[in-house]
Structure formats: structure tokens, C-alpha cells
Prior knowledge:
The protein is mainly beta and 168 residues long. The protein has helices at 68-72, 96-99, and strands spanning 5-15, 20-25, 38-41, 44-54, 57-62, 78-82, 103-106, 111-114, 117-119, 126-131, 134-139, 145-149, 154-157, 166-167. The protein folds into two domains: 5-85, Beta Barrel (Elongation Factor Tu (Ef-tu), domain 3), CATH 2.40.30; 96-159, PRC-barrel domain (SH3 type barrels, Roll). The protein is elongated.
Amino acid sequence: MDSQFIVVGRVIAPLGVRGEMKVEVMTDFPERFSPQEEVHIDGRPMSIERSRWHKGIVILKLATIDSVEAVQGLMGRFLEVHQSQLRPLPEDEYYQFQLLGLEVLTTEGELLGRIAQILPTGSNDVYVVPSKDGELLIPAIEEVVKSVDIRKGCMIIEKIDGLLERKA
């Protein structure tokens, strides 16, 4: 992916009148929202002045945002961090942005398409791969995904009976 910034949250609403905002968390690393951490909105760096959690969302006060009107102007905008700030992941785990766009091939070498979307489910993610015959839904499980090579831009999957049923 070409973007230098990775989405970690989205402004969903103001809270109060002094610049606090409710933020939908879009990261597995909630410590990103600690005071003195830096996030970017529209490429502008902003320091987190304070934060607290409430019912699965984070309430943030950014150092330069001091009014309800300023927060309203940010509603729907994404909070991002620079790729250099990414936390290392365990082996065989990847950030979604690393998987989106990967070519998906079978172990026999058949090109199925590219990952266009990742659907989270209760047990595992599902990769959506548009193809000439419709969408393929590929479960992110060990029995199916055999290898991922970010540098080569591809994922190898095992064809299992019924797996490659196309969704019209």
C-alpha cells in the first residue's frame, strides 16, 4: 500500500463543549490513545492531551482542539499514525493494510484475484476476492491460507471442496 499513514480511529461525535471527542477505535493497540501520543488528522500531527475509555470507545482531548465546533468539523475524519509508528506483530500476523491488494493464488498456481476487503467475523476474518465469476470469500484459517509473502505481494491458499463457491 502506498499510504504513509495507517488509520487507528475515527471521530464520531463531540463530548461536552471543551473539545473532547468520542473516537471509534480501529486498532488492536489501544495504548496509541495515551496522553502525549501523536496522531494525525488530514496529515496534521496532533498531540493527545488526555484520554479515557467509555463503553468501548475512547474519549480524547487533542491539544489544539478546544471547542465543540472544532470537533464537529472533524466528525467522520480518521485518526492516523505514521507507518514508522507501527507496533511489531507476532510471526504470521499482518496488518490489514498489508493484506489488502495481495494477489491470491492456489497451491496449483491459479490466480484467483486480489484481496479487496477483509470482513471480521467472530472466529476468523474472511478475505473478499473479486473475480471474473463473482466474489470469492476466503476464510483466514490455517487449513486454507498456506503462506503470505508481503514482499512478493501474494497469498497462497489451498483449494478445499466448496471453498471457492462464488458469491454472485
